[in-house]
Amino acid sequence: MARRQIAPEVFLAGLPLFKALDAAARAELAAQATRRTLKRGEALFGQGEPATGMYLVVYGEIKLSQRTPAGGTRLCGLVRPGQSFGEPVMFLERPTLVAARAASDALLLHLPKAAVFDAIERHPGFARHMIAGLSQRIERLVEQIDRQALGSGTARFVAWLLRRAGTTQPLVLRLPAAKAEIASLLNLTPEHFSRVLQQLAGAGLLQVQGRTITVPDRHRLEAAVRRR
Length: 228
What we know:
4-stranded antiparallel sheet
């Protein structure tokens, strides 16, 4: 089924980051935005490429990954609709620190660096919102590091799973990446992640079929993890 198209200006108006801009400023910024449609698995940019601006996810999901010293790849982030990425290296004017690839069919808006810098210089409120957004991202990264340092592998996976899932019963979630990639995101080995899935499935707390995970009872899963 074809997705409904949305004008860039309308999309920007619905995001908290751009609410500090008046309609004229948003229209000017939207006029410089370019659409980028990606098929699942298609690369947006590679690690080390020049940073040309920031990206906003209209629909779909984007995987951010990084090469490891051992020559492998580590998944370090998943960007969902309404979220942005690319700002840190845009401000630092350095090459990209990660590679970006579509985890599903996706539509992005690319805002060129010059347009963003111009909006920041002319609209102090937008600059404050941008700083606040980056600060929140740092806060989430610190929280993620704390969870990985203190929680068990099972607790980390369940917390991640429930943050992504909705509120319907039963919860049904399709993993946005291969299980080995999800394991790297949670700082687990693929073997450890497989054991976590097997143990939770064996206890009847979830069902796994390929990349699809079903949680029959969210509260029972939460209670079981708290008892561990």
